[in-house]
Write a structure and sequence with these properties.
Two copies of one chain form a homodimer. Chain A is α/β, with parallel strands linked by helices. Helix content of chain A is 39%, strand content 23%. Chain A has two domains: 2-120 and 301-313, ATPase, nucleotide binding domain (Nucleotidyltransferase, domain 5); 125-296, ATPase, nucleotide binding domain (Nucleotidyltransferase, domain 5). Chain A has helices spanning 37-54, 93-101, 111-122, 182-186, 188-201, 203-211, 218-226, 230-254, 273-283, 302-313; strands at residues 2-8, 12-19, 24-31, 62-69, 71-74, 79-83, 89-92, 106-110, 131-136, 140-146, 149-151, 258-262, 292-295. In chain A, a hairpin with a 3-residue loop joins strand 9 and strand 10. Chain A is globular and about 60 Å long.
Chain lengths: 316, 316
């Protein structure tokens, strides 16, 4: 089975062909044209055709196309309600791609929801049927899976973990306009902010970055932390406390078997796991404390694999 | 259709017969014998037979029996895993009642989950398919309904809203052993504590209770608040802030269409709704703020009606 997968992200788009086992047969990455959705969708179709050609199949061989996007999606109708970029509102994505490709089976979904579905089909599979998926990257997004089904909420917006309030005493401003949100205290952006603050206060810390030729951001900080730099370790542990608080809320509400973390910061999860566990143990009801904290098994391609998984799940 | 309903609570048990429309045809209330579950279950069977006799039907006319209890329940197997009272552990409730009554269709469930199912079938019905149910009483419990289905979690413990951490600066000790829980700051018990504290600090407040012949607890305080006593109003508004925080977490995670509140404190919800709304507006992502806050339509009988609703829902 060949599935077309489109992961339309904030800055980049990946188009690929994936088989029923979650193997990526080909993929191509290019910049997202956020200024003109029609033009960008047409580019996606062109790239998809190139992918089809490159593996020697025809368009008719595609079982379906899964498309995910960062925003509010009405997946039943196949409509993008609102994306994070200006002008991307109320777009009938399903009809557009049906018309352009001639393929009938098209599924669209919010990108983090797609990651969770990808995890269910191609990642931890049967290990967890009740879990939350958390993307910790520039921002923080989430998805909820219960008994193997996506929980969408009243208007398809469940999983706003990034806006759980975790810090009431010294709340930082969040891009959403509120303060004290998990995203403002534990995202990659927040970790970069902590790093820059620490560098301003401590010339020795700045020297460590220069010496190890690391960028003065969350990634550079994680490299230093993995080498045992105490200040860098402290920064990740600080973020872990806030992540632990946010995760605790989710656990008390949902009793998940696992919290699965993806996004750029997931590669530094080992720096945070102990503190997250300690924090959640203090903050979740004792009956709920047996859940696992795991890095996604889908790696960098979680959203692309998720797009393909949507097509399989929606055909059952 | 006649349904047997058993609501086995912490101090009292209600046994009744309910029809398919949620009308209570008869009911009988008695103390829960927490010291001996076998004896208590036998008493329940005796009372159920009396109920059957009193409305002039026979045991064979019962379509099924719904039983709810305050604790962890494996509803698939019909087993009470752990109740709040000593010695009530790993009890095969379904087999016991099948054997004693000869009725095959027996459903058991956690009491707050049962309330939510009752609301779905007999309360707000089709108005909400995605909602959370919150019992605010001596303690605080919760249940989650998504697309008309109960969300149970990994080990049947979803909905521990009472143990969401809402107060980090001056956290009060919770009966669960942790501190800062919603239950420790917004339950009926907490409101009684605030009332007693305020009485100790202010002789005029104490006089108001004496003058109006009200008990110096959450109920008395609500009577005074409804009469416009400023201190009493402040106490309910204080509890409302914490409720608002707890509700905000649930809303960010689940995007419910409504938060439905039952339990003793629900009758004072009008004293708290404005502050809850203000608090949630500050704390939930803007896309999620359109949810309703409602008092249960099932009143005092929410759990009993829930027990009957379980039987109907599980027969579909």
């Amino acid at each position: 089975m060949y599935i077309g997968a489109l992961d339309i992200g904030g800055t980049k788009t990946i188009v690929g062909i994936i088989d029923q086992n979650g193997s990526i047969l080909c993929k191509y990455q290019f910049a997202t044209n956020t200024y003109n959705w029609q033009q960008h969708f047409l580019s996606c179709c062109t790239v998809l055709r190139q992918c089809i050609d490159s593996i020697g199949i025809s368009c008719d061989d595609l079982y379906g196309i899964g498309i995910n996007m960062p925003g509010m999606v009405n997946s039943k109708e196949g409509i993008l309600l609102k994306a994070v970029y200006k002008g991307w509102e109320n777009i009938d994505v399903k009809s557009f791609f049906r018309c352009e490709t001639g393929i009938d089976h098209i599924v669209i979904e919010n990108d983090v929801n797609a990651c969770a579905i990808g995890e269910l089909l191609f990642g931890y599979k049967d290990a967890y049927k009740n879990f939350i998926w958390m993307t910790v990257s520039t921002g923080i997004g989430g998805a909820v899976v219960s008994e193997g089904r996506l929980i969408r909420g009243g208007w398809n917006c469940a999983g706003e973990f990034g806006h759980l309030k975790v810090e009431y005493e010294h709340p930082a401003l969040c891009p959403c306009g509120q303060s004290g949100c998990l995203e403002a205290h534990a995202s990659g952006t927040a970790i970069t902010r902590y790093t820059k603050e620490a560098i301003r206060e401590d010339p020795l810390f700045e020297e460590a970055f220069s010496f190890h030729k690391q960028p003065m951001d969350a990634i550079g900080c994680s490299v230093l932390a993995k080498q045992g730099n105490h200040k860098a370790v402290e920064i990740y542990e600080k973020a872990a406390i806030w992540l632990g608080r946010g995760i605790s809320y989710c656990v008390n509400v949902l009793n998940p078997e696992a919290v699965i973390i993806g996004g750029g910061v997931a590669s530094s999860l080992d720096l945070m796991t102990d503190v997250i566990k300690l924090t959640t143990e203090k903050n979740v009801h004792t009956t709920l404390s047996g859940f696992d904290i795991k890095v996604t098994r889908l790696g960098y391609e979680a959203a692309l694999l998720g797009a393909a998984a949507l097509v399989i799940l929606n055909s059952k």
